[in-house]
Amino acid sequence: MLSFEAFEEKTIKRETLFTGKIIEVALDEVALPMGGTAKRELVFHPGGVGIVAITPAEKMLFVRQFRKPLERVILEIPAGKIDPGEGSHPEVTGARELEEETGYRPQKMTHLASMYLSPGFANEMLHLYLAEGLEKVENPRAMDEDEVLEVYELTLDEALERMKTGEICDAKTIYAIQYWQLALAKGRECHG
């Protein structure tokens, strides 16, 4: 097995190209392990949280919204960016986002997985949580000012059909549906 050093690209120079509200974009010049140099375009992101929320009626919560990079409306699990101060407690982000986007509050958040979404150019890590003991909130936290969402509650079969039609097309949501499908196949309950 090759050592880390056999793969490592050492940064020679970094140029910050853009610093925005959510991301930072940089251009690195790197020394390649086999000799020579290359350029690497990088995106730095604080990370996010996705929530697998299944109601006592065995329906998963989804939000339908417009995604500008795709120029289309898609259906996805509730999710959001980790705000400053929440980095070491992504479950706090998850509970906040679930309430803002769906009007439900969880009694418990269980970590399922953490994953890098596009490690070829970005460091964004998504933490996936199972929201348990869902309670409908009478006066939920307000959504972000720039969000327009529609909440859906779908059965597993309905969610799988939405995957087939392409309305559900993002990795976190497909992962969440697959988790739910496997949990049901093993006889585990995912709601609370």
UniProtKB/TrEMBL annotation:
Name this polypeptide is given: ADP-ribose pyrophosphatase
Single GO BP term: ribose phosphate metabolic process
Keywords attached to this entry: Hydrolase
PROSITE patterns reported for this sequence: NUDIX
Any matching Pfam family: NUDIX
Cellular component GO terms held in the UniProt record: cytosol
Taxonomic classification: Bacteria, Bacillati, Bacillota, Bacilli, Lactobacillales
InterPro entries in UniProt: NUDIX_hydrolase-like_dom_sf, NUDIX_hydrolase_dom
Domain Nudix hydrolase: 44-176
Source domain of life: Bacteria
PANTHER family: NUDIX HYDROLASE DOMAIN-CONTAINING PROTEIN (PTHR11839:SF18), UDP/ADP-SUGAR PYROPHOSPHATASE (PTHR11839)
Organism: Enterococcus asini ATCC 700915
Cofactor(s) of this protein: Mg(2+)
